[in-house]
Amino acid sequence: MEYAIEMLNIRKEFPGIVANDNITIQLKKGEIHALLGENGAGKSTLMNVLFGLYQPEKGEIRVKDKTVNITNPNIANDLGIGMVHQHFMLVEPFTVTQNIVLGKEPTNKFAMIDIAKARKEIQALSDRYGLMVDPDSKISDISVGMQQRVEILKTLYRGAEVLIFDEPTAVLTPQEISELMDIMQSLVQEGKSIILITHKLKEIMEVCDRCTVIRKGQGIGTVNVSDTNVTELASLMVGREVNFKTEKSEAKPGDNVLSIDNLFVKDTRKVELVKGLNLDVHAGEIVGIAGVDGNGQSELIEAITGLAKTSSGSIKVNNKEISNLSPRKITESGIGHIPQDRHKYGLVLDYSIGENIVLQTYYKKPYSKAKVLNYNEIFRKAKDVINEYDVRTPSAYTKARALSGGNQQKAIIGREVDRSPDLLIAAQPTRGLDVGAIEFIHKKLIEERDKGKAILLVSFELDEIMNVSDRIAVMFDGKVVANVKPEETTEQELGLLMAGSQVKAGENSHDHE
Amino acid sequence: MTTNNKMFGILVPVISVLLGLIVGAIIMLSSGHNPIKGYVALWNGAFGDMYTLGETVRRTTPLILTGLAVAFAFKTGLFNIGAEGQVIVGWLAAVWIGLVVDAPMIIHLPLAIFTGALAGGLWGFLPGLLKAKLGVHEVIVTIMMNYIALYTTNEIIRSVLTDQKTTSEAISATASLASAWLQSLTFYSRVHYGIFIALFAAFIMWFIIQRTTYGYELKAVGFNQHASNYSGMNVSKNITLSMVLAGVFAGLAGAMEGLGTYGSISVMSGFTNLGFDGIAVALLGSNHAFGVVLAALLFGALKEGAGEMPTSAGVPTELVDIIIALIIFFVASSYMIRWAILRFKKEEN
User: Fold this and answer.
1) What is the mean pLDDT of residues A37-44?
2) Which of A393, A420, A447 is the last residue of a domain?
3) How far from the centroid of its chain's Cα atoms is residue A454's Cα?
């Protein structure tokens, strides 16, 4: 059997830590091979070894049965290995074609860039693999899913035989995910081989042939996807049984904590995206907002938290009007917010974890007195949060930037929940996280509910909405169009409601009379 | 990661200075001068006796303050090119108070210093406010403010402070920073009490940035405005405040010149360059208060020592400008130095 790529017994150490220990992964030609592991398990390190960014201490890399020594990414490129990065490496004001040829520009006999030739080649590649990319669009004008396909084209244009996808679905909508799965299928049909780095088990079951699992830097083994199931993969990855059905008791809703009446909000381009929305959230209940991205969810949250101005309507928390107050006043009135974009809003990445833990409370006692910070208290608090929320970091003094996404998220959740707000807004709280972390975060949300807090959960993952919510508010075109109970509905029905279908016209009334 | 950054923060400037001196030596050699004699002359010109030492400290004083002015704004992600103009208005305001107010020293001197600082702060306020409220880039506005300061000040000296003369009267003794004991210690150099003010200002900057909630907010806004807004900080207020405080430091530098070194103000044909040198000082000092003090001392010494080079070693003073430019070049291209250090460390392992 010829393997496209073999990495045998790879060991990679960093000062004080073994990132990869005796990991073997063998990629067959024409297969989609999953590399599964928790956040921080060592997947990226392993791929960086393959890509020549790191040199392994031990082990062997073989490409097509020949031992190779990959000392830099150019060698990896020449060997036909291409990487589709999670964070796109694209020049926004350039066109698709310009981006793809960047660094490998075809020239005519006068040494000028022959963009027409490149354009034709790219169009041909796009057609062949069904990528549907317009070579003349500017990157800034195309969707995230399309940008990712440009990244794929970039590797194909450079002659990649093996494509590595680094958590490609983390940034995609469900629709885009299923398109990507089709593209991956057509790539392998054309003879390419794929390594899919992921921690989403559903995707593995859907498209992968085999799956190599690593846990805490150790190679656990390789399984055939057809011989396994989600539960087994999860326990291989996490090293213990994982509970997919979130355990929770019946909700005991109390008083109204959040009540929104006839709310209108415009986005930064002055387009009205929340159009007369009504919503109530009670103490002791989790209300999940289901909806297709772009139906006003982000604007709703920004309006509640004071990051965006409302045009009209009222937002009351504990019967106090908070609309258009400053974010600080709103925070102080008892709202916690786990933001959708943790890098943009949730953390100051160049601050230490400790400094991030007091981002909303630094000006209060005991963290400061007479405007002078008390770092002893700040880091004491940080250490408590780190311990309680299982944030894996070398120390409280480590910069937030250095942590993995899952641990950054746990730090944010720790910070927000620790302030014990009456209303906790969780926007996509588990985006990009592995099952272990997701389970942990869901448990924390339910714990808060059981303490009598009101929780507003916004998620594009229907699983999450169905599992965690006590009540589901479906958002479509800037309004809540239906309120349903998760045990009385199905994903199909929710899907229809989210698409604006009127099947449940009888339930269109909103919930505060 | 943090220790690495700290290490680079110290190593890069030190190596840059060494490289600057080495390349300076090569230039001296290639133009037929003896670099050892040249550097000995430079050293003697800066630290050779108490007089030159006094003058070196005198030159260092405003550079510390303008360095702080640039470094402080930079902590909030702002580039204060306007230190130059802030120095000029600070100088003018301090001298003005020194001329027209009649009060005992215990009131007069602090009032003059305070007014200088206030004028600088005001000159920083406008660019800060425009940046905060309208998003106008502070570099453009501060450059324009520099010219406004220069020509307005010249006109005020000619038409208001004097009757079409080029230099104002000397300020009252009650507003002077001149120090008899410092002067007698240094053979009557122009060194004055301002150095203590500058050092205290450096301590204040360090304290504000590292230890107070103001510094916490200013840095957070510099790193990530979105997260700062999310967490309830007032981003506009912090941007404005940062430019005002930066202006205060630069205004103090002007006050030091007006109340200490010169005791008057003259019509200027061009910029003082104190503000622009402040950019270099901040860069070399890694935007850290303590680093700024050391970098200012180095620049003060180089500029003072340069005077000795033509007479004792026959080396033209311009060579020092070349060395300063080289040092800045090496700091600015610190990427090369970082790369070399990492390479070196790797081979060690």
Assistant:
1) 82
2) A420
3) 24
